[in-house]
Design brief:
The complex is a heterodimer of chains A (416) and B (501). Chain A is mainly alpha-helical and 416 residues long. Helices cover 73% and strands 2% of the residues of chain A. Chain B folds into two domains: 223 residues, Rossmann fold; 244 residues, P-loop containing nucleotide triphosphate hydrolases (Rossmann fold), CATH 3.40.50.300. Chain B is globular. Classes of the chains: A mainly alpha (416), B alpha/beta (501).
């Protein structure tokens, strides 16, 4: 049953993916905002999505084990700092391992507080966020005074990590052989839709950091672990019904610890990615709320790897556009209008009157906004990724179902 | 005969309560051994100790002659003990298959072999007549099917000693028969069954030996063939068995509730959950609704209370209710005893006085304007505890610290507060002991004499027949028969419920 569902889900995903590119190319032609489907945008979108995907995967493992992890942000901070600190001394790969380890250390604190001592999950998570930020600032200041760091808010540079692309299609380099770059050549032809698709695919498959490849691969791997292995089943059972799990001899505490520690490892890697791959050093405030966004992507993705990937990609795309070209953001408004109309039509078919009206009203508002303002004010442009993600996700995912026991304290022998 | 399990002088105390005091039990292998006692007598605690969910303060456990120390359920599973819990231990959002294999997965290098598990489950299900779809989500299953999942879970682990904690509390007679057949099959295969119950007729039907527990201690061990139900009842509670009888008619002229063509649509466009149900209920009358679980009785009651959308009309004391919210309906004088007390009627981790507020949060005595009147609520909670014999240390006690029977008596007391004109009672004595059952019956009878109208659902057919003035039978959402309880036996009602008659 699951197998069948997955297959049709796969097909649906592909259709949706190409459908979105088709709509984007129409808007591109209509508005002339060429950055909507450029190679650079796709590349930037991927780069911006990866930390969010990693944070979301972190949230996934924790929540599936029944622990709410608001502390993702703090664990990412620790990861980013460790990445900068160890990466600048011992090279990027050691830096990434240190990032994972430090994220897991932050998670260990969260696990001890919430699992062993039954502290409220949100309280513990928020505390970790605050402590992590303060702690790394404190140590960085000492390092800067000692002269080994350029300043209290920045680490020395880290060597870059290698990158590669798909052979033949995206111009990868293998054992000294430079492969052709077919997608790029098609992309430059400027054929409607075909070139658009080529450019987006080229952006997603060419000149990838090895870390990006690993991060993207972690999504299906997480699905496989959580839904196909004994470990995953047991981990999820402690988030659904820890008492049932306990009655079947599952070591609930151990599973929850695993979930939270893995969660911290993912978050730490996400932080390390920001310091080492997205930038070339650790910088204060580098995380900038990505832990929370990852958590939101996971919630809207219905606590599933595929869903959280879609949520993260959406945010990454909007963020990339905003950084590259504010004119493209203006064009993006049209996409939001199209999506809202689609949502309105769908809820109309289901007979949900209020949802239909809300979607239509929002569509009207954005259409008016598109026509009334040639150029968006800067603040609004910066805000767009958040706004677009919020609107799309809240309309797209209306029947969410998380683990039944997430956030609840658990005590062995809980049922008298 | 070899002894499969022996408990010697087990004692266990919880803060403020002594659950077990010097409990000793010997269970022969290959037998069905019943453990009986009132709710709260400590039966479940003994079994949780045997299953490793609780640790005894003192005493010794022997399995197949070997002294054992169970620190966690995994240890007892290892020793070949399995438990079918009264409150099902299932993850609702998991499939049957996932629930069964959890903790005991057939795997190659950590990857679960779901196909092998599915085949094994289907094979076992066929052998013992416990059919269930392995790929269904547990939340979509009925109570009887969930219990099958629980039994399969235990068998799947290769348990040789099976503990059943009040397995029949939630089943209709036909399902009980199927369960008992399965039990006999298990015994024939040489498995040992420990059967916790407070239903004496079942003990005599199915058990070889009986151990009686009263107030946390074992008081007798007898052969089932040597005793009568009366004798067991005396051992258990020290009194005679009560019976659910009503005398004469208390029916009055005024109509309390009338339904016409009430229909509840299924969400997914399947057949109606309730279709075209009409009846009239007078004050002082008890209408029993019989039916195998899942045939629309619960949905009907929920519709009357306004918890479900429906078409048709509900008129309460001459006023149409269809546009009223649940809270308005309750305020007009409708009380509700839901079928699942822990999920629907109580906040388990809140004290009793807070639970007293639920459903009455809009008026006296619990409210004083917009503020909760804690003092008055406490006082009224104490009143309920006295009038309805709720045995608990005080109104500050958490609901989860009470035994099932005392929880239920508390709920009945709460719903009777403010003297509603109509009581919707869904399984009011499910899973409670003889003493509490008699007390609840008394309250229902007294309320009926005073003119309360009652809609009663119960899986206990004797209770249903005994307490009702009129009986209707529901099958697949429709009323298929109306019966006179004075001329109905549990057997004839049972066949009417399955549509056999």
């Amino acid at each position: 049953m699951l197998e069948k569902g997955k297959l049709s889900g796969m097909r649906r995903t592909i259709i949706i993916f190409f459908g979105i590119i088709a709509i984007l190319s129409i808007i591109r032609v209509a508005t002339g905002a060429s950055d909507l489907t450029s190679v650079g945008t796709a590349q930037a979108a991927l780069l911006l999505s990866v930390p969010i995907v990693l944070a979301a995967l972190g949230g996934l493992f924790a929540e599936r084990a029944g622990v709410v992890n608001i502390g993702l942000e703090g664990m990412m901070i620790m990861g980013a700092w460790a990445g900068g600190f160890m990466g600048s001394k011992h090279g990027p790969w050691v830096g990434l391992l240190a990032a994972i380890f430090f994220g897991a250390v932050g998670a260990l604190v969260h696990a001890i507080a919430t699992i062993t001592f039954g502290v409220d999950h949100v309280v513990s998570g928020v505390a970790i966020n605050i402590i992590a930020a303060g702690l790394v600032r404190y140590i960085s200041t000492i390092l800067a005074q000692g002269g080994s760091w350029p300043g209290p808010s920045q680490s020395p540079d880290v060597e870059p990590i290698g990158q590669n692309g798909l052979p033949i299609l995206s111009g990868g380099k293998y054992f000294g052989w430079q492969s052709p770059d077919i997608l790029n050549s098609i992309g430059e032809k400027n054929w409607f839709l075909i070139s658009d698709i080529s450019r987006v695919l080229r952006g997603l498959t060419g000149e990838l950091s090895y870390v990006t490849m690993i991060a993207v691969a972690l999504v299906p791997i997480s699905y496989y672990i959580l839904w196909k292995t004994s470990f995953g089943l047991r981990l999820r059972s402690t988030g659904e019904s820890p008492i049932a799990a306990e009655s079947l001899g599952v070591n609930v505490y151990a599973m929850k610890y695993w979930g939270v520690l893995l969660s911290g490892g993912f978050a730490g890697l996400g932080g390390g990615f920001l310091a080492i791959v997205a930038a070339n050093h650790y910088q204060e405030n580098q995380i900038g709320g990505r832990g929370y966004i990852g958590l939101a992507a996971m919630l809207f993705g219905n606590w599933r790897p595929g869903g959280l990937l879609a949520g993260s990609a959406l945010f990454g795309f909007a963020d990339a556009l905003q950084l590259r070209d504010s004119a493209a953001i203006h064009a993006l408004l049209l996409l939001i209008v199209a999506f809202l109309l689609f949502a309105a039509w769908r809820s109309f078919k289901k007979g949900q009157r209020i949802a239909t009206i809300v979607a239509l009203a929002l569509a009207g508002f954005f259409a008016w906004f598109f026509v009334a303002f040639e150029e968006l004010p800067g603040q609004l442009v910066t805000m767009t990724p958040y706004l677009a993600t919020l609107i799309v996700l809240s309309l797209a995912s209306q029947r969410l179902r998380g683990p039944a026991a997430a956030g609840l304290p658990y005590r062995r022998g809980g049922l008298k | 005969m070899a002894i499969a399990v022996e408990l010697r002088h087990i004692s266990k105390r919880f803060p403020g309560v002594i659950a077990n005091k010097d409990v000793s039990i010997k269970v022969e292998s290959g037998s069905v051994h019943a453990l009986i006692g009132e709710n709260g007598a400590g039966k479940s605690t003994v079994m949780k100790i045997l299953y490793g969910m609780q640790r005894p303060d003192s005493g010794e456990i022997l399995v197949n002659g070997q002294s054992v120390q169970f620190k966690k359920p995994a240890d007892s599973i290892e020793a070949g003990i399995g438990m079918v819990h009264q409150h099902f231990m299932l993850a609702d959002n998991f499939t049957v298959l996932e629930n069964i294999v959890l903790g005991y997965e057939p795997s190659h290098g950590g990857v679960i072999d779901f196909n092998a598990a599915r085949a094994k489950i289907n094979e076992m299900a066929a052998a013992y007549g416990l059919t269930v779809d392995p790929d269904a989500l547990v939340e979509d299953l009925g109570v009887g099917q969930r219990q099958r999942v629980e039994i399969l879970k235990v068998l799947y682990r290769g348990a040789k000693i099976l503990i059943f904690d009040e397995p029949t509390a939630v089943l209709v007679p036909q399902e009980v028969d199927e369960l008992f057949e399965a039990l006999q099959g298990l015994r024939k295969d040489g498995l040992t069954v420990i059967f916790i119950t407070h239903k004496l007729d079942e003990v005599l039907r199915v058990a070889d030996d009986v151990t009686v527990i009263r107030a946390g201690s074992t008081v007798a061990e007898v052969k089932a063939s040597d005793v009568s139900a009366k004798k067991l009842a005396e051992l258990m509670v020290g009194s005679e068995l009560p019976s659910p009888e009503i005398h004469g008619s208390a029916k009055r002229n005024e109509v309390t509730l009338s339904l016409s063509k009430l229909t509840v649509l299924a969400e997914s466009g399947a057949r109606n959950l309730v279709s075209d149900v009409s009846f009239t209920l007078h004050a002082g009358e008890v209408l029993g609704i019989a039916g195998v679980e899942g045939n629309g009785q619960s949905e009907l009651i929920e519709a009357i209370l306004g918890l479900r959308n429906y078409t048709g009309t509900v008129v309460f004391k001459g006023e149409p209710l269809d546009d009223e919210s649940v809270s308005e309906r309750r305020d007009m004088g409708i009380g509700f005893i839901p079928e699942d007390r822990q999920r629907q009627a109580l906040l388990m981790s809140s004290p009793l006085w807070e639970n007293r507020i639920l459903g009455h949060q809009r008026g006296k005595p619990v409210m004083n304007g917009v503020l909760i009147d804690r003092k008055a609520t406490m006082k009224d909670t104490v009143r309920i505890m006295q009038e309805f014999d709720v045995r608990a240390p005080g109104p500050d006690t958490l609901a989860l610290a009470l035994s099932g029977g005392n929880q239920q008596k508390f709920i009945v007391g709460r719903e009777m507060s403010g003297a509603p004109s109509l009581l919707l009672a869904s399984h009011p004595t499910r899973g409670v002991d003889v003493g509490a059952q008699a007390a609840i019956w008394n309250e229902l009878r007294a309320a009926r004499e005073k003119g309360m109208a009652i809609v009663l659902i119960s899986a206990d057919l004797e209770e249903l027949i005994g307490l009702s003035d009129r009986l209707i039978v529901m099958l697949r959402g429709s009323v298929t028969a109306e019966l006179d309880p004075t001329k109905t036996t549990p057997e004839s009602l049972g066949s009417a419920m399955t549509g056999a008659a």
